[in-house]
Amino acid sequence: MGLKLPSVRRYKKQMTKYASADFKHDRSLLPFGTARTFYNFDFSSGVLRKGYGVKQHPCVPVGAQRYWIYRLYSEEHGEYADQYIYQYSNGLLAWFDAFKHKEIYVSGLPYGPLDIINYRVNSKDVLLLTCEGRKLITWDGDRYVEYANSPAISSMAIHYERLFVTSRDEKTKVYFSKNLDPTQWEISEDGGGFIELLDERGYMNKVVSFGNYLYIFRDHGISRVTAYGDQTEFSVVNMFVTAGRIFPSGITTCGNCIMFLASDGLYRFDGYECVRVLTDISAAILPDDNCACAYYDGKYYLACKMDFGDGKTVGCESSDEYKTNALIVYDLSSGEYSVSRGLDIRFMNACSYNGEDYLMCCEGGKGGVIERGAARFDDPLPSYWESGVTDMSAPDRAKYVTEILFDNTDGGSADNIELGVCADGVWSKLNVQSAAANGVKLNVSGHRFAFSLYTDSDTVNATPLCVRYNTY
Predict the structure, then answer these.
(1) Which residue has the higher pLDDT, 434 or 142?
(2) Nearest of 121, 209, 220, 109 to residue 165 by alpha carbon
(3) Are 462 and 422 in contact (CB under 8 A)?
(4) What does the domain layout of the chain look like in residue ranges?
(5) Nearest to residue 458, comparing CAs of 340, 378, 342?
(6) Which of 9, 11, 33, 13 is nearest to 21 (CA)?
(7) Which pLDDT tens digit goes with each residue over 379-389?
(8) CA distance 209 to 214
(9) 373 Cβ contact list (under 8 Å, min separation 6)
(10) Which residues are CB-neighbours of 313 under 8 A, at least 6 positions away?
(11) Which ranges in 147-263 belong to alpha helices (H)?
(12) For residue 165, how many C-alpha atoms fall within 13 Å in the half-sphere facing its CB?
């Protein structure tokens, strides 16, 4: 009588692409290719590439905490020039004179964290400056003037040639200046005035000019103001209400919409309706008033605090003083996004200087720019991706993973990747030297599997995994 051998059935499970992460659902429910967690990777192209980081830039002083571009017309030289202006950690404000090629201090007085916008007053290019503890300040490149009659401004926006502001002292009111003159605040029919709203949406925290309307972002909602030339025709409509709290530092206009962060998630607002976005990672966001945001290159950049739930320490997390540890970069056209971890970003501002566009930021007290390449200035940040758990559609059958195939080529580079395989809760890690058509041989058995990729290399271009396995 012959010996009957068990038949071997060979299979493969191919990931079509690296898909969005899901911090919300149980890891056993995630499709193959959906990340249970990831950071410092960008999968917008379907493969894993390095995410975003912070680098130094010749136009951004390392000591800059805040930074803006001042478009100034010089009477002396008869031309416009981009000047950059920046605030140091000691509160002093300085600028680099592009004509004299030297740094000049605006004044010897320290300021709190400033907000600045460009405007023209009396046919001169000026900056409007506001900060806590000071009234409205104008600076024209030679002198600055503080207007004691202005409100204590917490946010400001130019809308139809008036300056609209929220007040630190009177949070139920939005004040507006005289038409064509943001320095005049006397309340009169042809001068300035205010709008007061008292309802369940709460205090007024930020004003945003968007389209033909002015939007007031409040603790728990949004109100829309129709405000053309004549203030007697101003009108207000309440647009949106939420039980969650809206954080002013997470609000910015993004082309044809406004993005904002609330305690119950991220929202996209088109002027009429609010839609929650990135809902599968919202559970990991820990929103607070320390967030920062900007719109640049068609993407919404949000620096915030996130709980990655793995007990690890990455980048800035080694310090007890960090306020943010994550940078979410959300592409408004495609819906794709990346998450960088280990960056303590407190301020961002999209700038254009002499024809060059860049996104300035302050990270860990140092000025720089945000670019691709997961690094914290000169220190590379580790990148990690981990899948959900899969039973290969055969929960009762033991599987033997024999090989994992993927490519990691980026212009001929050869970088190391650590490949992880988890079988029934036990991890095995293998260092893989990058090459085309990587075939990692192994023999790991179990019923339920998860996979991970880790690298601290400068570049990576990992294609989706193909897992070969046998059953008996």
Answers:
(1) 142
(2) 209
(3) no
(4) 9-48+384-471, 53-381
(5) 378
(6) 33
(7) 999 999 999 99
(8) 5
(9) 50, 52, 53, 55, 458, 459
(10) none
(11) none
(12) 30
DSSP H/E element including 406: strand 399-406
CATH of the domain spanning 53-381: 2.130.10.10
Q: How far apart (Å, rounded) are the C-alpha atoms in residues 114 and 129? A: 7
> For residue 315, how far is the Cα from the chain centroid?
17
Phi/psi of residue 362, each to 5°? Answer: -115, 115
Q: Is domain 9-48+384-471 classified as CATH 2.60.120?
A: yes
Distance between CA 9 and CA 435 in Å, rounded?
29
3-state helix vs strand vs coil in the chain, percent to 5: 5, 55, 45
How does pLDDT run across 118-153, given as a tens digit for each residue?
998 878 889 999 999 999 999 988 888 999 999 999
Q: Two tokens at 98?
A: 């592009």
d(CA 440, CA 452): 13
Could you tell me the pTM of the whole model? 0.94
Residue type, 422: C
Give the position of tokens 């570049």: 459
